[in-house]
Amino acid sequence: MDFIKRIIWKRQLTKVLNPMDKLNATLEMLEKKEKVLIKKASQEVEKVKEFSRANNKRAAIQCLKRKRLYEQKIEQLRSFQHRIQDQMIMLEGAKATTETVDALRTGAAAMKAMQKAKNINYVNNIMEKINEQNETVKRMQEAVSAPSGAAAVVDEDELEAELEELKGPEFKEQLLLPAATASAAAPRVPQGTDKGDELADEMAF
After folding, report:
1. In a domain, 138, yes or no
2. Sequence-ordered list of residues with C-beta below 8 angstroms from that of 160, at least 6 positions apart, any chain
3. Which of 63, 120, 168, 201 could form a disulfide with 47 if both were Cys (CB 3.0 to 4.6 A apart)?
4. Reported pTM
């Protein structure tokens, strides 16, 4: 529908442009006629001077009559030119108005289409999609950062039990003491035994 209206507007604009061309051509024609009549009037003035010098009063008066007729035609042509110029100014204003209205209609139609395409439901759908994408990315990050392989299936209780077996009672008590006390309470190795000597040698090394 808008496309058909736009075509009608352009046709109307073309109708405005064609009269403008016609008026311009007519104005040029009137200007040419005016120049011709001005030239003829000037020639009659020269003839009046010549007949006056020849004391031909009758011929001089006839030339003056023709000169006045030419001058009347010239005034008439100038009046026509003024009317055409006024009409051209009015048509130019109508053309500017038509183009302005067409531009405003196009802008209003575009704005209406944009508002129709992007209503509140459209915005809500976009926000829901964004939230879904953010949730998907969050799940992917959690899946990537989660432990995998053997670390994912190890039981913490089993690790604690195994640690207690390795430590024994003395190491368990040692973990509960401060660092200095724990080092002082380290198990002593009896001297004079082979294992004690070997351990002493290792520590001295």
Report:
1. no
2. none
3. 63
4. 0.45
